[in-house]
Write a structure and sequence with these properties.
Shape: globular
Bound molecules: ligand LGMQ2O6W, calcium ion, magnesium ion
Largest sheet: 8 strands, mixed
Number of helices: 9
Protein name: fumarylacetoacetase
Distance between the termini: 54 Å
Number of domains: 2
Cofactor: Ca(2+); Mg(2+)
CATH class of the largest domain: Alpha Beta
Radius of gyration: 21 Å
GO molecular function, one term: fumarylacetoacetase activity
CATH superfamily of the largest domain: Fumarylacetoacetase-like, C-terminal domain
EC number: 3.7.1.2
Strand content: 25-35%
Pfam family, one: FAA_hydrolase_N
């Protein structure tokens, strides 16, 4: 039995119980954005709680984004979380806290933090091998560098949007047998990923060791790295993804603190060949996050994050090994999460093998996204005492190109 139970109705036994407490930014009506923490189907207004001195964070919770709070660092993140836990478990606080609870159906969620830099990795061996075979048939599925460093590219921070934001079908150049043509992408896809949110910055010219991961990274968000495969396939050589992925990247509205994922750590896959010293992480652990991908409400895949080849700590060490600075609000995504089976892949490129093997969704044969389609990614993680944590979902609906 868990030591603590919440007095909030519906919290115990829900994926958003007392052991989770993810942070987000919400508005009520035309009100200003406010920081809140989710429990069950309500949001605790943390701006209100800090204004009433129920929780102390030096004003960091009275800001329009999480960035000031993210910069405070791990001891403060833990202290605030402990205080919120106290407020939501001790019946003595109920009378003061209850008026600060806002039902979820009365709020509109905003982007939880101002995204500084956005990096996307490529850390699923299965995904990389699948894409290699589809994009580069006849060549080895993995490029020679893949097992020596976490491959990544810099994305476009300004086009990261919160879950629920409509996604406009991008236009661009795509190849045809008569040369490139311009128009709406005909191969619009998803990528189910897990994003890591940096809180504590690092100075230019310094490195962050894998061992210091939890001192810098505050938490995780689900990510959908929308990808226009036709634009991508034409533009990506030799410099990597550009306009095929920069038109929109959706993230969940709720940031799950690493503190809530203590029970989700699992041994990461063994690495062979051995990695260079700066990439060694001890313990070599990943997170047991179980993702689901739903296409118009129909579950089409269940990607397992535990099998990712490169860990988030290794990605962080690699990201800074050249002396690149971290900034508060940096977001780095894992790369598409794919497992070994076809019903575990994190993209429709793989699910339909480049569009050659359609799947049935809603009774019709489908390959890539059509206008009006909605894709929702969810995930669960083990919590304490057999409890399950549900990460905030990331969802988006495709709108026609304009
Ligand atoms: O191998 C390629 O050329 C392209 C790979 C991707 O599109 C994958 C990407 O964005 C990284 C990832 O999400 O794993
Ligand atoms: Ca990606
Ligand atoms: Mg993107």
């Amino acid at each position: 039995m868990s030591a603590r139970a919440s007095w909030v109705t519906g919290a115990d036994g829900s994926g958003f119980g007392i052991h989770h407490l993810p942070y987000g930014v919400f508005r009520v009506g035309a009100g200003e954005p406010r920081i809140g923490v989710r429990i069950a189907d309500v949001v605790l207004d943390l701006a209100g709680a800090e204004a009433a001195d129920l929780v102390l964070a030096g004003g960091a919770l009275c800001q329009p984004t999480l960035n000031t709070f993210l910069a405070l660092g791990a001891p403060q993140w833990t202290a605030v979380r402990q205080r919120i836990t106290e407020l939501l478990t001790d019946p003595a606080h109920r009378a003061a806290v209850e008026p600060l609870l806002v039902p979820l159906d009365q709020v509109r969620m905003e982007l939880p933090f101002e995204v500084a830099d956005y990096v996307d990795f490529y850390s699923s061996e299965q995904h990389a091998s699948n894409v290699g075979q589809i994009f580069r048939p006849g060549q080895p599925p993995l490029l020679p560098n893949w097992k020596h460093l976490p491959i990544g590219y810099h994305g476009r921070a300004g086009t990261v949007v919160v879950s629920g934001t409509p996604v406009l079908r991008p236009q661009g150049q795509r190849p045809s047998k008569d040369g490139p043509v311009f128009g709406p992408s005909a191969r619009l896809d998803i990528e189910a990923e897990v994003g890591f949110v940096v809180g504590v910055p690092s100075p230019l010219g310094s490195r962050v060791a894998a061992a210091d991961f939890a001192d810098h990274v505050f938490g995780v968000v689900l990510v959908n790295d929308w990808s226009a495969r036709d634009i991508q396939a034409w533009e990506y050589q030799p410099l990597g993804p550009f306009l095929g992925k920069s038109f929109a990247t959706s993230i969940a509205a709720w940031v799950t603190p690493l503190d809530a994922l203590r029970h989700a750590y699992v041994a990461a896959p063994e690495q062979d060949p051995q990695v260079l010293d700066y990439l060694r992480d001890e313990p070599h652990v990943g997170l047991d996050l179980r993702l689901t991908v739903s296409w118009n409400g129909e579950r089409v895949s269940e990607p397992p994050f535990a099998g990712m080849y490169w860990t988030p700590a290794q990605q962080l060490a690699h990201l800074t090994v050249n002396g690149a600075a971290l900034r508060t609000g940096d977001l780095y995504a894992s790369g598409t999460v794919s497992g070994v089976r076809r019903d575990q892949v994190g993209s429709f490129l793989e699910l339909t093998w480049g569009g050659a093997e359609p799947v049935t969704v809603g009774g019709t044969e489908r390959t890539f996204l059509v206008d009006g389609d909605t894709v929702t990614i969810t995930a669960t993680a083990p919590g304490p005492d057999g409890a399950t944590i549900e990460l905030g979902e990331v969802t988006g609906t495709i709108r026609p190109a304009c």
